[in-house]
Every structure is written in C-alpha cells, then in structure tokens.
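Propose amino acids for all 435 sites.
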C-alpha cells in the first residue's frame, strides 16, 4: 500500500513522473480500489494531455463519478504529504509491479490447481490451459476482461507514431515484395495469413522468401514449422535464395569456385539471422503454440502446411471427421496468432476443383476440407502460374498472387517474377512514361 501511495503522490507533485510511470504500470496493477480509481483518472488525463496535479485530478474525479466529498480530497492531500520524494518514483513503481505480478501468479496457480482437481479434460488440455495462463502473465496481459476505449487509445497513438517514423509507412512487417506489401499493408500482428495453391506453384518458396526478409529486416525471431520438408531441405532452399546459387547445383553438389564464394558469404549473413526450424511431422497447433511462447523476440510464424497437421499430435484416426478437425485447427491458429501477437502464415493445399475449370485460377471455394479456413483467416492469398498449365503461355515465369480476402484493404491480383533456379519470387517493376 505504501508503494502504491508513493507512486500516486509522486505523480501529483511532479508531472514529469507521469510519463515514466505510464510506461511501467496499468490501472489493474493497483490493489486498493481507491488507488486504482485515482490512477485510472490520471491515466485518462495523461491520454488527453491535460495538466495533472491534486486540484485537476480531484476535478476530473468529480466528472467521472469517483469523487467522494468526505474522503477523496483529504486522501489526495495525504498522498502528496507522505511521499518522501518523487526522485524515487520508479523504485516505488517497481514494487507495485512486482506485487501485481505475484498476485497474478497466485491467481493463476489457484486456477490451475482447480483445473487439476476438477479433472475437466485430459492432461494435455489442462497442460495447454496452464501454459496459456502463465504465458498471459509473462506477456503482461493477465486475465482479460472488458477494457475501456480510453485505455486502448494511447496504444493506438503510439502505433501511429511508430508508423509515421517508418520509411515504408507499413503497419506491419514487410514481406520483401513491395507490390504485395502495398496490397495487404504488410504482415500485421495477430493476423492469420493463409497462402494456398495447388502443388508445384511455389507456396513453400514464397513463405521462405517472406520469412527470410522478415528475419533480415526486422531482426526478429522467425519460427518455421515444416510438416513436409526436412530441416536440411529447408536450409538448402534458404541458402539458394540468399546466395543466388542454382538450387539444382546445391542439390547435386556441382559447384564451381564462384558458387562456393557466394555460399560462404550467404552462410555468414544467415548465421546472424534468428531463424528457427522444426520438422516434426506430428506437431499439433497446441505444440507449436507452446514452443512459440518460449521465444522472447518472436516476429513471425510460418507453418507448412495445414492439411498435414493433426488435431492432437497423433496420427489421424480413421473415424475422425477431417473437415471438423481442419476447422478446429484453423480456429486455433487464429487464436494462436492473437495470443502471440505476431503474424502467422499458414500454407494450405487446394482441391482439384480448379483443374476442372477452363480458367484454372484458384477461388475461395477451392480451399480443401473446410470453409472455416476462409472465415478465420484475415488474409487469403492464392498463387497461380499460367505456364504451369499452358506451355505456350505468354506469362513465362510470371506468377500471380491473388489476394482473395483482405481485412486490411482491397482484394486483387499482383504479378511477381518467378525464378525457379533460386526458388524465389521478386517484384516486377513496371515503368510508366510521363504523358
């Protein structure tokens, strides 16, 4: 209680303390109701850049209905009197944050113990729920409830400030392909991005291209889960893209001196990137979520691919309703993206329905096994290469990235250059003559 009072008193006698405390504490960190109400009032006033002192705070509390004539004014005066000095405000705030964390851990422990005693669900489900509770505390979220809009607005303003200082003005991470960035506004936090295509169109290559660029440009950790390819195959693909050495020569070992120089330089560059690979073919969404929670600087998750995943990490049973399983997994992937607060790119196979049509460009109805994938995903992108079906196509080594669903903007098609020898995509630069 003394630390809570000292924090509030410091903010009332020294306005310079307010910004420092706001970066460390939230209203829920205060245990005593009266202290929490005063901090919430100061929090709101700070959001609207209003002057903060004993008189202005008392006046604001009258407006919001938390002022008590007999107790509030003397208590505000008492807070300013008993605060020894505002110079130690961060020490006081540290004590408040520490006690709030201990309370949250205690509450989570009690809830976990109740789950175990009740025995509701199997052991894996209880373990997943327990990890989720602890992870929420670690991320500073705690138990989520209704949050006033005025508490969210400062975070929105901070985000706007970050974007205005960013050269490319993207709200999300860059894919490395400017044409796609402009269409989907980059890879945004908590987004589930579905990249779907028929086999051979370059889904994995596109995902690895994006992962490589995010790791390079953002210096964040990128986690790649592959249920189809081995770690060595993924690493070889990434090495081909970074070194610009023909992927076939990397597979066969037919390398010349120049190739070895490029590979050596690429290995040095890749060694400084934080890219993590997991090729366990029996991973479930819960397994991936648990592994990602332990990563501190996570920026992007890539999963290759949805239809190979199992609901519980075990091989699918014969009587299992696959459509329901895929629906459940797509929902769990969206929850995972939201919980981790990072973009999740999930690859998906398409049904053969498009191959029966004259125009073989994919449509949302071609998504295999579940319409729920379309509902849960924030962005759905299809890859299509006309020369895959038509040898005489004018669009040789031109890929179409069809944005079929986009919660952040418009849908449409973006053309990309496909370089099969490096298994990579590049933006096609179009020049326009003036006039």
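Proposal:
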């Amino acid at each position: 209680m003394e630390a809570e009072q000292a924090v509030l008193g410091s903010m009332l006698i020294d306005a310079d303390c307010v910004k420092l405390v706001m970066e460390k504490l939230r209203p829920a960190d205060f245990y005593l109701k009266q202290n929490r109400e005063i901090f919430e009032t100061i929090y709101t006033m700070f959001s609207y850049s209003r002057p903060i002192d004993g008189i202005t705070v008392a006046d604001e509390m009258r407006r919001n209905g938390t002022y008590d004539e007999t107790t509030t004014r003397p208590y505000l005066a008492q807070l300013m009197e008993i605060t020894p000095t505002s110079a130690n405000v961060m020490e006081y705030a540290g004590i408040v944050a520490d006690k709030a964390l201990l309370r949250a851990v205690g509450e989570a422990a009690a809830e976990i113990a109740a789950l175990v005693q009740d025995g509701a669900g199997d052991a894996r489900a209880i373990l997943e729920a327990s990890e989720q509770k602890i992870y929420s505390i670690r991320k500073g979220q705690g138990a989520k409830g209704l949050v006033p809009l005025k508490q969210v607005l400062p975070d929105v303003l901070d985000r706007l400030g970050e974007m205005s200082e960013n050269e490319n003005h993207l709200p999300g991470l860059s894919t490395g392909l400017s044409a796609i960035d402009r269409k989907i506004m980059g890879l945004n936090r908590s987004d589930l991005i579905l990249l779907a295509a028929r086999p051979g169109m370059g889904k994995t290559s596109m995902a690895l291209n994006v992962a490589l660029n995010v790791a390079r440009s953002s210096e964040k950790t990128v986690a790649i889960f592959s249920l189809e390819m081995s770690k060595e195959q993924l690493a070889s693909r990434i090495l081909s893209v970074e070194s610009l050495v023909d992927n076939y020569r990397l597979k066969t070992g037919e390398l010349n001196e120049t190739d070895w120089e490029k590979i050596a330089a690429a290995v040095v560059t890749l060694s400084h990137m934080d890219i993590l690979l997991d090729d366990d073919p029996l991973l479930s969404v819960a397994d991936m979520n648990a592994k990602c929670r332990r990563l501190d600087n996570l920026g992007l998750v890539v999963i290759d691919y949805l239809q190979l995943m199992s609901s519980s990490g075990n091989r699918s049973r014969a009587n299992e309703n696959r459509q329901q399983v895929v629906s459940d997994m797509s929902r769990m992937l969206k929850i995972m993206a939201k919980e981790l607060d990072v973009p999740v790119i999930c690859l998906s196979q398409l049904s053969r329905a498009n191959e029966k049509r004259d125009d073989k460009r994919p449509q949302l109805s071609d998504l295999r096994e579940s319409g729920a994938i379309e509902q849960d995903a924030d962005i759905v992108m299809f890859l299509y290469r006309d020369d895959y079906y038509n040898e005489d196509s004018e669009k040789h080594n031109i890929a179409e990235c069809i944005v079929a669903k986009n919660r952040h903007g418009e849908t449409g098609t973006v053309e990309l250059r496909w370089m099969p020898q490096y298994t990579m995509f590049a933006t096609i630069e179009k020049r326009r003559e003036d006039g």
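Residues 313-319, 430-435 have pLDDT under 50 and may be disordered. The chain has two domains: 1-165, 171-427.
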